[in-house]
């Protein structure tokens, strides 16, 4: 007789893999923030406050980037893509300790 956990595993593992892939596929459609999206305003805020470090396209290559000890995040990295919207929002709101990325919550 096969051990029972083998049957369980052969059911559970594919379910988890499929759920994970769906999570990846629909990553950007999951509403993660309480604020409604406002692309026009967001762009203006980005250009005014973020572009100097993060660059026009978010590649982390803004004119201010070279002077920084900690490089501004390139949001096209896979690591950023995998970071949840909640976590990114938290970084923007509260900043990163010992980094030029300060909190923007009160700005
Ligand atoms: C003074 C330069 C500077 C400015 C201005 C700046 N950032 Fe950053 N930002 C950084 C740096 C440096 C990091 C990387 C911090 C680390 O990894 O320690 C970062 C990280 C981030 C991250 C995390 C990305 C990730 O993959 O985890 C987000 C999101 C972000 N910034 C958004 C913004 C937004 C939105 C603004 C404008 C409101 C902004 N930043 C303005 C320097 C800046």
Mean pLDDT: 83
What is the helix/strand order? HHHHH
Number of strand elements: 0
Helix and strand content put the structural class at: mainly alpha
The number of distinct structural domains comes to 2
Termini distance?
Answer: 65 Å
Protein described:
- With 107 residues, the chain is mainly α.
- The protein has 2 domains: 1-30; 37-107, no CATH class.
- 49% of the residues lie in helices and 0% in strands.
- The chain has helices spanning 4-25, 39-49, 51-54, 78-82, 85-94.
- The radius of gyration is 19 Å and the shape is elongated.
- The protein starts with a helix and ends in a 13-residue tail after the last helix.
- The mean pLDDT is 83.
- The protein binds heme C.
- Residues 49-50, 52-54, 64, 68, 70, 72-73, 75, 79-80, 83, 88, 91-92, 96, 99-101, 104 line the site of heme C (HEC).
Describe what is shown at a glance.
Helix content is 49%, strand content 0%. The protein is an all-alpha fold and 107 residues long.
Detail the topology: elements first, then pairings.
Elements: H1 4-25, H2 39-49, H3 51-54, H4 78-82, H5 85-94
The structure holds heme C.
């Amino acid at each position: 007789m096969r051990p029972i956990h083998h049957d369980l595993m052969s059911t559970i593992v594919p379910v988890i893999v499929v759920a994970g892939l769906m999570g990846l596929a629909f990553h950007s459609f999951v509403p993660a923030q309480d604020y409604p999206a406002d692309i026009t305003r967001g762009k203006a805020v980005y250009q005014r406050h973020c572009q100097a470090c993060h660059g026009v396209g978010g590649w982390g290559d803004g004119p201010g980037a070279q002077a920084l000890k900690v490089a501004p995040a390139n949001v096209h990295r896979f690591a950023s893509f995998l970071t949840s919207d909640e976590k990114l929002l938290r970084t923007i709101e509260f900043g990163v300790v010992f980094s030029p990325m300060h909190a923007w919550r009160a700005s």
